[in-house]
Design goal:
The protein is α/β, with parallel strands linked by helices. It has 2 domains: 75 residues, Ribosomal Protein L15, Chain: K, domain 2, CATH 3.100.10.20; 237 residues, CRISPR-associated endonuclease Cas1, C-terminal domain (Four Helix Bundle (Hemerythrin (Met), subunit A), Up-down Bundle). It is 46% helix and 17% strand. The chain has 10 helices and 12 strands. The strands form 4 sheets. The protein has a 4-stranded mixed beta sheet. The protein has a 4-stranded mixed beta sheet with strand order 4-3-2-6. The chain has a two-stranded antiparallel ribbon with strand order 9-10. A hairpin with a 2-residue loop joins strand 9 and strand 10. The chain is globular and about 60 Å long. The two termini are 25 Å apart.
Length: 339
């Protein structure tokens, strides 16, 4: 329940190997060796994420498909292995419009808006962090550099140079973001994707993977194909989800990880190195998922609704707005911007 006393449906995460998920009389049932561990009203769940080695009954799969509940299978490191979702016939017409968009001049304008919003959010987040922590000393040119790169997005005439601008901004941003880490137990050698060499990058990777799952679910529920994007290469598999996540990385994952580190919610012993990659151990991973879900339920004002809504609702609002844009019910898509 949020502060505004309305129910916001949440994501159900199931991690324990050997657990079985079923459904009876409109309630999700989680069992282990035939022992009932938990019952949850189905009306409270918006999507389901199960880790490897979790069993799902056929009745549960049918119910989730009939009721439009995305069911994701994740690796224990958060990577989305597969998703099951019945979109009905609505996605066929929408998919056609998504492909048509790729051939229109408006594609580059949309791509520029997405990248510009990402850089703008990075700038706002750093500025807010500096105001809240005057002890942090960043290079005085950092914020102006990011603002200049955001402005430079307007000059891009193709996707490739736009991605170059995005890359420059990411390098500048993460160099500064790392300096905002105040907990001396952790170091940040810069943004390293996979394999993650350190705990901070491990948390960023896991958080981004979880957020990507949430974004995919929001798009699927609105009947939009998460695989047909405008910025990222279609060969990435979830290119629209990869486009869409750019609006939310900073406000959700970057802020969550920085707070978790600086507030000592994790320590170096919460991580292990396997296959040359640093990862969260099992119990700390559960804590991270709990923090992530709490973040998704937290509220902030959306610029379109002008009222406080949860991050989860913001994802849905943006997905709905994108679909309206595809069907030309609105002239422009407005990426989410921090303020």
């Amino acid at each position: 329940m949020t502060s505004s006393s309305r129910t916001v449906r949440r994501t159900l995460y199931i991690q324990r190997p050997g657990v079985k998920l079923g459904i009876t009389a409109g309630r999700w049932e989680i069992k282990f060796k035939d022992q009932l561990l938990e019952q949850i009203p189905a009306s409270l769940i918006s999507q389901i994420c199960i880790m490897e080695n979790v069993q799902v009954t056929s009745a549960a799969m049918v119910w989730s498909a009939e009721n439009g509940i995305p069911m994701h299978v994740l690796s224990k490191h958060g990577k989305n292995i597969s998703v099951s979702y019945n979109s009905g016939g609505q996605i066929v017409a929408t998919r056609r419009r998504q492909y048509e968009l790729l051939e229109k001049p408006v594609r580059i304008e949309l791509a520029k808006a997405i990248v510009s919003a990402k850089i703008g959010n990075q700038t706002v987040f750093l500025a807010q962090t500096l105001r809240n922590h005057p002890e942090i000393q960043l290079d005085s040119s950092t914020i102006p550099q990011l603002r200049a790169l955001q402005t430079k997005c307007k000059t891009a005439t193709a996707i490739k140079p736009l991605l170059g601008i995005e890359g420059q901004a990411a390098k500048t941003y993460f160099s500064a973001w790392g300096q905002c880490i105040l907990n001396k137990e952790f170091t940040f050698p810069g943004r390293k994707k996979r394999p993650a060499p350190d705990p901070v990058n491990a948390m960023l990777n896991f958080g981004y993977s979880m957020l990507l799952t949430q974004v995919e679910g929001a798009l699927q529920v609105r009947g939009v194909d998460a695989a047909i994007g405008v910025v990222h290469n279609l060969r990435t598999g979830s290119s629209l989800a990869c486009d869409f996540i750019e609006q939310f990385r900073t406000g959700i994952v970057d802020s969550l990880v920085l707070k978790a580190v600086n507030w000592s919610q994790f320590c170096p012993d919460d991580f292990e190195v396997t296959d040359s990659e640093c990862r969260l151990k099992d119990e700390p991973r559960k804590r991270f998922i709990q923090l992530f879900e709490e973040k998704m339920q937290s509220e902030r004002q959306h610029p379109l609704t002008k009222k406080p809504v949860s991050w989860k609702e913001i994802l849905d609002i943006q997905a709905m707005q994108y679909k309206r844009f595809l069907y030309e019910k609105i002239d422009k898509f407005y990426p989410f911007r921090l303020s």
